[in-house]
Amino acid sequence: xxxLHKARIWYWGHIxxxxxxxxxHFLYWSVQMFKHDxxxxxxxxxxxxxxxxxxxxxxxxxxxxxILILLFIKEELSYDKFHTKADRIYRVxxxxxxxxxxxxxxxxxxxxxxxxxxxxxxxxxxxxxxxGQDVKRYVGYGEKKFYEARFxxxxxxxxxxxxxxxxxGNPATALTNPNTIVLTQDMAAKYFANEDPIGKTIxxxxxxxxxxxxxxxxxxxxxxxxxxxxxFDFLASYITQKDDxxxxxxxxxxxxYALLNKNSSVESLNSKFLEFLHRNWKKDPWYTxxxxxxxxxxxxxxxxSEVEPTGNILYIYIFSAIAVFILIIACINFxxxxxxxxxxxxxxxxxxxxxxxxxxxxxxQFLGESLxxxxxxxxxxxxxxxxxxxxxxxxxxxxxxxxxxxxxxLILGILSISLVVGLVAxxxxxxxxxxxxxxxxxxxxxxxxxxxxxxxxGLVTFQFVLSIGIIFATLTTHKQMKYIQSRxxxxxxxxxxxxxxxxxxxxxxxxxxxxxxxxxxIENMTTSSYVPTKGSGHLSLRLExxxxxxxxxxxxxxxxxxxxxxxxxxxxxxxxNQLSEEGTSDFLVSELTxxxxxxxxxxxxxxxxxxxxxxxxxxxxxxxxxxxxxxxREPYSISYMVAPIESHxxxxxxxxxxxxxxxxxxxxxxxxxxxxxxxLDYFFLDASFEKMHNMDRRLSDIFSTFSILGxxxxxxxxxxxxxxxxxxxxxxxxxxxxLGASTFNIYLLLSRDFLKWVTVANILxxxxxxxxxxxxxQGFAFRTRIGWEVFLLSAGFALxxxxxxxxxxxxxxxxxNPVDSLRYE
Length: 825
Known about the structure:
single chain; alpha+beta; 6-stranded mixed beta barrel; 25 helices; 23 strands; elongated
């Protein structure tokens, strides 16, 4: 036992003493080995500059696309994560569907306080109400008067539950008292310049009904981060509102949020909400509620009446797929070009093996070359990203800056991309080249180049399957965008100038109208409670012949609305009689309304009685259906009711296309002379409609850009392979030319295999691309058809680009003097 103990002491002592020496030796050996591999890789890259440049350029473009998409995805996934309690904040979603599936982001006033009172799991609730989404609200201070789109009423808890820090003011008390308001930094600078806003009074018309309210400024908030689903400029105290804030009935632009205790069960709460509504509403509820995670709102919420437009997780998947496809194309280029040059490197490999190099050493060397090229590429890719970032921001409607590169997770992601690309692109060539046998390679060079031919054919075909798929998607999205622009919406959206009404215009409207119509550039004008693309009011009508109520979009209009917007009267007459003091009015209904009401025809609806709460009337006519929102949605059934201008929010002016700038100038001067205290704030209806499809248009533009990049990267590889094929067949080409072959014959010899691969790629890509784009088109209620021209154009583009790329090398080789290639034979 004593001897064994001494042996153990000697053994471990030896290990402890020798360990630093072993580590030092290992590190020294590793550095020397790395230095040797690095210098070998660098010499080989310098020796083959042309192929190395093609590889680096292709990999750099693929990596740049990946980095840009990574930045885009990171920004999209970061929405609302800056709130420290984000994982415990939920929005109350409302549903009027029978299946209880959430339909609306907005809802009733009274739900929030009742939730906090009834459920101990809910620590706090927050209510906000947006007043400037559909109709901008007037705000003024001294001589500075504007219409603002981001005016909110908010409870005091808004500033404590959410992380919107105040630069000045106390977040716990800033919104406690009536008629108090918090401004953002930008608004404080806009209205007060160098003055201190705290304690100053601003005026506003939050209800857009002409009643000016005065608000005392109690706080200045930091500008809202871009990655928030709520963006406000003004936060007025919630208690200031003149509505019944305990009301459970009705959908207004009111949004309710709940902060839950830790470990509270959302599923358990959702199961109790129906009983909660029965208990608090005191009658049978016509809607249900559920909790929606705050972090799901940006990408996973498809509810109606969002605070502002949301994103779509589908686009994240699409952009990610495009970036990965382009990177795969670049990696395939690398593998193809490297294995195609195997004949040139066969002797190098075999000589190394003869002098004692092991297979793993060769693998390490070739992987080192691949990683070195990948490192070069990543630096070039970062430079490309920095240069192209302004263009990408415009393309994707983002605000990305070079500061994003300071994020450690992004740096780790970029390094991972470089490492993965280097390994993926280099692993097959390393295994392929290191497997050469010296006895065969030195004896005969034939066979090794062609041993990888089938694989190269497959890889090139796969490259073009991806490229053609992107082209197919680009053509489809462009066709859908063209369809959206040309589709008949049921009204004429061109040359309609829309402005917000105010109390003075309402008071002097007839004089204002007569003055404007004297200008030959103005065709007609009308006022209404809503206009297409800018909100809608949903109310329940009772129609003669129906026992139940019919949910309708209600437009309060004047008698010129139909003519100004170019609606088509299908049956009956236009509406002329204004809402009387007795509460009677004329109604127009849409064709869809007559079908929902169960009338046999539009003609059968004319003359039927209508009641809307205390108002009664009859249907005088039926008009065509119109699309008031994007073409992602089906048309709503709409009823038009003639009502006094006091209930209208918008002024719509149809101008003629000739001398439009002079006409707008005339409108501005007339406005200034009649209502100098209010600014003229306007937009054009066609631009507002196009804005609703901005995300789809961005998708189309991104598809176009990345399809060009994908094809370009694929053509880099095709160019390299064509050059190498021409180099390998130099002597064959010389002999054929001596025997009388024409330039065209030589061109066909060199290009027919490549064109065959591209043709096969088309056949494989078509069904896949067709299936994917059909799924995308299903997101539109109105969509174009993927016709035969999309198939032919995608194939044509790919073939033409491929022919051009191959021709650059094939024609050069075909026209070479055979004397130069045969003079040594």
